Amino acid sequence: MKAIVCTRYGPPDALEFKDVATPAPADDQVLIKICAASANPLDWRILRGDPWLVRLFMGLFKPKVEIRGSDFAGRVEAVGKNVKQLQAGDEVFGAKGFAGGAFAEYVCAREEELAPKVAGMSFEQAAAMPVAALTALQGLRDKGQIKAGQKVLVDGASGGVGTFAVQIAKSFGAEVTAVCSTAKMETARAIGADHAIDYTRQDFTRSGQRYDLILAANAYHSIVDYRRAMSEDGICVKTGGSAKLSGMLQDMLVAPILALSGRKKTCSLFAKMNRSDFLFLNDLFEAGKMTPVIDRSFPLSETAAALRYLEEGHARGKVVITVAEKGGA
Predict the structure, then answer these.
(1) Residue 167 gets which letter from DSSP?
(2) CA distance 182 to 268
(3) pLDDT at 122 over 60
(4) Which helix (H) or strand (E) is 302 found in, with range?
């Protein structure tokens, strides 16, 4: 099969498009012919080994996992003997997380890592959802304890996590403020934001407005700045962790100390992939309350260009990689 292979840390140009062996499913796995995948910041950060601490887990001198990519959607090609709920021909989507393997023509996954692709959802839409949409959902619902009528602010509202967060927060009945750049204000309003703030013209942390819940999809501000914009019982959820060492130190050392004074809470989140939350996202899609925002798509052979574009930070929503056929039932 064709796959995108990474044998060394470096920029996207370090990726190779080459032939590798097609994986064989274990007894509890299925083999999936991938139709679409999607790129996440996690992919280019691991590719670069940045921050350097990533290498302690992903390989000190070179990546342990040579085929990156988490999110995918496709058709079941074969099933292991212990698989009970899936069969060849089923259309599914899922995520491999740090295990990778989605930037390829085939991938193996366990049943609990997968969910059915619902009718009316394209393979590209399904592949766009897993990491970003689950991060938004778990950040708002589980960590943020979102409630109807709350004032919710999404910082980084036009990116992959942010576009899902705006829509999911609205589905819970919140009043949503989106923070994004001038060029992306229209996108934020189109997906349902009640208010939009252009961060190039206004610093929401100094506006005097207070929010019950802040989802920091980009976490550009310090913990002190976010706390300034929170209500007395407010919660700030930083998604995906901090890419810089200074941010990591704030999360580990400063946040717990500040939490001792007052009722404001700050926490970080790494999404946990699970089938029940995938099904929840399916329900939102079928109800018309959430739809993936896809900026552009690249063929598998141009995955390096896709990651380069994502790393530049200009994408509106998700960047998708088409592997096989477009569309879907």
Answers:
(1) H
(2) 27
(3) yes
(4) none
